[in-house]
Amino acid sequence: MTLWFVFALMTVAAIFAVLLPLGRGGRAQSQGSEVAVYKDQLAEIERDLAAGLIAAPEAEAARVEISRRLLAAAGSEPASEPTSSLKWRRAAAVLALAGLPLIAIGVYMPLGSPRLQDFPLAQRERGAGSGMALENLVVQVEQHLEKNPTDGRGWNVLAPVLVRLGRFDDAVRAYRNSLTYNGESSERRADLGEAIAAAAGGVVTAEAKTEFERARGLNADDPKANYFLGLAAEQDGRKDDAANIWRALLAKAPADAPWRPLVQTSLARVGGGGATMPALSDETVAASKDMNEGDRNAMVRGMVERLATRLKQNGDDVEGWLRLVRAYLVMGDRDRAMGASTDARQAVANDAARLRQLNEGLKTLGLDG
Length: 369
Known about the structure:
74% of the residues lie in helices and 0% in strands. By secondary structure, it is an all-alpha fold. Helix 10 (186-199) runs antiparallel to helix 11 (206-218), helix 13 runs antiparallel to helix 14 (260-269) and helix 17 runs parallel beside helix 19. It is elongated, with a radius of gyration of 36 Å. The chain starts with a helix and ends in a 5-residue tail after the last helix. It is found in: Cell envelope. InterPro entries: C-type_cytochrome_biogenesis (IPR051263), Cyt_c_biogenesis_CcmI (IPR017560), TPR-like_helical_dom_sf (IPR011990), TPR_rpt (IPR019734).
């Protein structure tokens, strides 16, 4: 009710703003006539002459010409103009005050949507407007780096954003500059290799592989370097080598590592992790070892469904959502994985921290955006 009352006040204010000038006398009419315009021009000439902006001969010539037009205009204007009736003006005001809101309501009721739900902020931020804002920020950073090309921190910030925007060739250049001005690190070498692979459409080229090997030389346990070296082995047809690399990576990985689901999915893809076994927990795997294939699949699917039901009742569990999406992916049900990711984003849309954590986890699962 408060919102509608505010709308009503705004409507009344707008109507008065339009009708108030109509309620005044005929004096305003003469103020806007040609005579008033020419008088203003004569006064302006006197001001310019006093300020020294024009010479006296030019001022005199202009004064004569404007005076001639002033006399012509004064002679052609009628001596008086009829004023509108006060009674009719009041009637028009009453009609506008009462009629316009009624007409607006009459049009809105059949065409409007009073029960339309709110559009959450998180969804608005994912719209085109946020994309344009991000690109504008990138342009500003690029302009800064053109003037300050040795700003290593700027290149370090810009590079991953360029990857997100799909500008992989520019990201490769940015990562190279980051290495030049920030120094060597396994993370930067691995990020450069990832950008090179992305620019090649996901293929780990020889150049990308070299960067991953350099990253692993700086840190033998670098997860990104090891993952992509396993991917390179898979693309070369060496699935056993890929499986061995990924098994070793998982053996050293923390239980809550955000990239762990991606490696598990990849391992299952090359036949090294049991594609029918969604990685819900170590306890689940241990409990299912003595079951036959049918019973094991039924047990896992039942657990997945129970997890999905629980998350519908309490959607704040980001890790739970990621486990659910991961399980659907490993079971080969990508449509349900996409649906679960959408439900998860809606559930945490009002919590910026949880939404950011969820998006990072989904990105590792290949469901970014």
